[in-house]
């Protein structure tokens, strides 16, 4: 029994004048040899550690507040408080303190608060005059009382003496009776004096006076006195607001009268502090610290009492999730929980932990899942606020719930997918709700706050869940708004005879540098600046939403490694993102560019191969060229991207940029970035040529090349196998849909036409032939690269083994020869150029190409 009676919480007052909970334990008073006196000891109930060891100093002023609080100061800026679970325990310790100091336990404060300047002034004062003599409480004495109250505020000792006098004589209730008389008589002057008196009593900062003033009997008259500010021409109508406008809504009837009274009192006192009292000046800011503490401890009590009443909370949850509950009632229930969670923020970490665990046990997350999907905007907004409290408190708790939920529910109704859909469907033009939800999603998918235990890793489990069940919902608006289906079906998948007749290949998808026939949209119309009207979202709200999604995806690139890498490769996501480089909204184009910059910043060769094979620098360079001479953020961001590649010397990207785009970029001379890339490229090419010349010719035999390729295939196994598997499914119908000879025939005609168009470019291109018989090609346009290599195509064909009876080898060799030379430009990074040609024949064969378009 004594344990419960002596159970306390220890609080300290921080710099912001807020009480910090230092822990819960049991208090005792005992003699401590080291401190040479009777002391208060508090030992933690969890582990018995010492939370507090404080000597009862004979000169320290201890205050007893609200029957269960003892407050004192141990230093100038170090205030302490003990909050007792039971009044009996508080009385016992208070008696011990008074016994040490030789005081009567009936007093509420053991010492007068005297500063040094006043100590000398009052040290000779006779003990009989320890209280201030108050004027009689009459109407004609109000001015005198007001002057007295105002005059003591600058003196701590006189404030204490006045407080004691007011308390002992029951003076406040007498003053409030005078207020009623003045109001009935419409005595304006008396009412103005009462305003000054009541305001001054509040600034005495005494908890014992607050308990009288804020009681049910007195509080409305106190508010009434504060309506008659002399500075106002007309009195405010605060009582009318509190009694008529402000309605106390009981979503579920509260049967505990003490709890109900505490809720009313806290609301009204908060109203007095926030609305009625003027903002305190720098000289008055500490006058109301006890009022702040009064509200704080009230809120702690309210949350604790509600939390302990499981019947009440269970009923609230039952009604919240009941389909029969009408919309108005559900709105009130959600708003109740929102306010309940807001109150909980005043709790200290240990109490807040217990609070949210109670809510989780009662089923707050399933309830939120239901209400977040409702049509009512107010309900959704309140539910989002509650969800944010839960995520900020424990992301792991939310993650655990959604992973368990996934085993029993469809993807559509998963909590995270509901959150994503709310983000996507936000009707606010500024997307305020979407921004908040995006921040919560970011917290949930952040590996930094994921736990790792010996048996399982939350990170791997949750990320597998998220990419399997949720990522498609998040990226749906992005993929929809960058859809190229109307073009890709004709370009990327050779599904019918007409496509075989025209040999339609999309250069920026399959890196085959051939020009599309004239009877289909030109590449410039698909990739260039005219594309906005067809694909790019010009709606500002849509653009903002896509920017938020890109921000999340960029975060994933930085923190999720292989999960996001697999997703980008499988969905060809970067190509879709780069469509947004054509948006008229520069911020969206920058988001797309930032996404690519993060990918390149990883310096991952798998990403680099994906970028070069897909020719994904083309939209970026188009944006740079379309930007013209404008010196803006887009210009700087693009140049910084290429500067990073140059400084970090990413060889595969450097070679790709120089070989394919240098001709378009060489005119940009206000920075040395592109010339620097060209220099890096040529230096690397010279090094490779020197290595080639130093290798004996016997090592360049066919047998040795096949061995080298086998080693490379081990390194690239998963990448190449995926391509082969996907490629087979696309190529099979192609070979059956057209006689075998038509494909190479039409391709030869096509190549001759294109060769004639670009003969001039061909003459101007520098050429170097290595001992292996390949050519470096420096070109910007896709067609130039192909034109320069038509001769080389024949030499490759001449070395190709005879076609098999079904003709498929002939098709493969013919088509591969057209792209070998251009791909061969990357071979400057490899010792054996012929070896690379063989690799390219396999990598760029028709049965593998469709992978990047899938």
UniProtKB/TrEMBL annotation:
Comp. bias (Polar residues): 796-823
Q: Which PANTHER family match?
A: ATP SYNTHASE GAMMA-RELATED, SERINE_THREONINE-PROTEIN PHOSPHATASE 4 REGULATORY SUBUNIT 3B
Organism encoding this protein: Myotis lucifugus (Little brown bat)
Membrane spanning stretches = none
| Region (Disordered) location | 715-854
Which terms in the GO cellular component ontology are assigned?
A: nucleoplasm; protein phosphatase 4 complex
| Positions with biased composition (Low complexity) | 779-795
Q: Where is the Serine/threonine-protein phosphatase 4 regulatory subunit 3-like central domain?
A: 144-683
Q: Which residues form the PP4R3 EVH1-like domain?
A: 5-101
- Encoding gene per record: PPP4R3B
Q: Pfam families from the entry?
A: EVH1_PP4R3 (PF22972), PP4R3 (PF04802)
Q: Which GO terms describe its biological process?
A: DNA damage response
Q: Which family does it belong to?
A: Belongs to the SMEK family.
Residue ranges annotated as compositionally biased, kind Acidic residues, are 715-726, 832-843
Can you say what this protein is called? Protein phosphatase 4 regulatory subunit 3B
Q: Which GO terms describe its molecular function?
A: protein phosphatase activator activity
- Start-end of Basic and acidic residues biased regions: 735-766
